[in-house]
Amino acid sequence: MIDFYGLTSPNVQKIFIMLEETGLPYKFIPVDVWASEQHKPEFARLNPNKKIPVIVDREGPGSKPYTVFESGAILMYLAEKTGKFLPKDMAKKYDVIQWLMVQVSGVGPAFGNFTHFNLFAPKPGNEYSFSRYRSEMLRLYDLLNERLGQAKYLGGDEYSIADMATFPWTRQHQAQGAKIDQLPNFKRWFEELSARPAVKTMIAKQADIKSSRETATDDNKDRFFNRGKYARA
């Protein structure tokens, strides 16, 4: 059994997909980041970085409980545990890992920062930041489209953790301003992944998760965004 701590963010969604794809038994434990639950001592003991997602594998290495945080590391751990969605051949394996790293180091930060400056940052005064991250986000959509014109999936010929990691960040492509009819390779990939049973299950489960986002206090919002009295600049 795997204890899975998260909420509704794209980084959490990718772990839902992997757990559903592998069929591993898991228990979902919501952590309401809008209520600052990630700062509670019991959660900080699981992840000193105080971020979701986190898993605790009750049957980890040596049949002992093992905790993994950071979504990319969780995907790699689950792939190694199950022997699925990460090739054994070294070249093919690192094709997948490279594109997983593109998501972790590129897609996630750029798309996340676009969302922040689009939805949460004060206006006016952040036009430069908004433009910078929107441009980078759209550049990455072009990169994904280019890659998917060279290979069926991001990591190569087979569906992998690189696809699971990237898909959730692109679910809001319309709101993000990406014109996918002009990105035919990306569109083909997105529509295929959207039809996978594990992805459909993830979306259904996400719809049932409740949080205090709409009623969060100003202090909890400031803590979440590291602003106000929590700013360190």
Describe it for me?
With 233 residues, the chain is an alpha+beta fold. It has 2 domains: 2-84 and 203-230, Glutaredoxin (3-Layer(aba) Sandwich); 90-195, Up-down Bundle (Glutathione S-transferase Yfyf (Class Pi), Chain A, domain 2), CATH 1.20.1050.10. It is 53% helix and 8% strand. The chain has 10 helices and 4 strands; from the N terminus they run βαβαββαααααααα. Strands 2-1-3-4 form a 4-stranded mixed beta sheet, covered by helices on one side.
Percent of sequence in beta strands: 5-15%
Radius of gyration: 18 Å
- Major beta sheet, strand line-up: 2-1-3-4
CATH architecture descriptor text of the largest domain: 3-Layer(aba) Sandwich
Unreliable stretches (pLDDT < 50, length at least 5) are: none
| Total domain modules | 2
Largest sheet: 4 strands, mixed
Helical fraction equals 40-55%
Please report the first level of CATH classification, the CATH class of the largest domain.
Alpha Beta
CATH homologous superfamily grouping of the largest domain: Glutaredoxin
- What shape does the CA trace take? globular
At the fold tier of CATH, the topology name of the largest domain is Glutaredoxin
Which class do the helix and strand fractions yield? Answer: alpha+beta
**Beta-strand segment tally:** 4
Mean pLDDT across all amino acids: 97
Continuous helix count: 10
Give the SSE order as H and E letters.
EHEHEEHHHHHHHH
